[in-house]
Amino acid sequence: MTEKKMSPLRQRMIKDMRIHGMGDKHQKSHIRAIKDFAAFLGRSPDAATPEDLRAYQLYMTDAGVTPSTFNTRIVALRFFFGMPCGREEMKRYMQFRTEPRKLPVVFSVEEVSDILMAAPGPVLKYRAALSISYGADLRAAEVCNLEIGDIDNERLLIHVELGKGQKDRKVILSPGLLELLRACWRETRPEGWLFPGKPKINPISPRRLNQAFTSAMRNIDIFRRGQKPMSRAPPREQAA
């Protein structure tokens, strides 16, 4: 839509978003949210009342809008009323929704062993990556970002750089896991990243590691119906 076809209100909102430093994707998300609110009202959204906001939030709840989408729209509405409209008091009538938390699936030691043995090819690479996530309690992104120099084979430590909370930390490396990493190194001969992707100048992605974990679970027939892939490898007991 060209600037000539935009309403003054929309033009002002776009300018405020640019001043705020929002990227194009974020701006489009905000615009979509305000359009949805305007469609619900049937009139210009800047004339909304507190009762309109309450009604819209009830409408989204009854319509089964997911908490993430609900909150995305609330963020957009808070910006809209706070900046372009200059109606800060309207924020008092908007509430965020909490997303229900599900308990993580906990595997037995036998299931963990089966998962690691069922890792897809290249087998040693993914078995080692999943084992290090499991045995050292690392997130998928932390595993993928490991470099060869992060493995201290003398002190049996793994250096995790900018992990959770953007902090460095050291975790214990078991002798059994060290031997597996050595076998993986002899097979793949990585030069920088401990688990290189394609091309080798990049590490494997957390998504690819998660896919390998899911594939291993399917291979041993313990992928439960309706269960989502885990964002990290199995629980904390020491890998064999």
Automatic annotation (TrEMBL):
PROSITE patterns this protein is in? Answer: CB, TYR_RECOMBINASE
All copies of the Tyr recombinase domain together span 102-240
Q: Which residues form the Core-binding (CB) domain?
A: 4-85
Q: Which GO terms describe its molecular function?
A: DNA binding
Name the UniProt key words of this record, in alphabetical order: DNA integration, DNA recombination, DNA-binding
- Keyword DNA-binding appears in the UniProt entry: yes
One GO biological process term is: DNA recombination
Q: Which InterPro entries match?
A: CB, DNA_brk_join_enz, Integrase-like_cat_sf, Integrase_catalytic, Integrase_recombinase_N, Integrase_SAM-like_N, Tyrosine_recombinase_XerCD
Question: Which residues belong to the signal peptide in this entry?
Answer: none
The record's annotation in Gene3D superfamilies points to: 1.10.150.130, Intergrase catalytic core
> Hey, which family's this protein in?
Belongs to the 'phage' integrase family.
Q: What is this protein called?
A: Phage integrase family protein
UniProt organism field: Primorskyibacter flagellatus
